[in-house]
Amino acid sequence: MPFNIIYRIQEQVYYLMQLRAIVDTPGISIDYDIENQWLYVDWKGVHDPDSSWAACGLMLTSLQECPCSKILNDNSNIIHPTMQLSARSLEWLAHMHAAGLRHLAWVMPQKLHSRRTTEGVVLEIEAPTVCTFDDVATAYMWLQRQ
Asked: Which end of the chain has the least Cβ crowding within 10 Å, N or C?
């Protein structure tokens, strides 16, 4: 059964995500946003490389099961980020692109120590289009315009 999430933007504008759950684990939830026709991925808690790769596998499976061209990838609820982009990450993105992904709005964790390195790698990605953001509201608005 779908449920709604409402976010406030700049104290005045509101947006609504009507979500249908696909995956719900302690570390990640993946929902289909019915109105916007994209996946909303909410990473939660602490992730190590193994849990991150398992979550990426769930993202790919979810994209294959619910084909769409956009993902709102929300890392703002990650408590202790340890992620690093690698050749394996780029290979995963290629698989996501082959499955139909064209635009990825990536909300960064609050305390990502390797943020500059991560954003430098993101700039080199040709497809899909990946943009990083500090908050869900800005990412949401960007993704709607794509």
From this structure: N
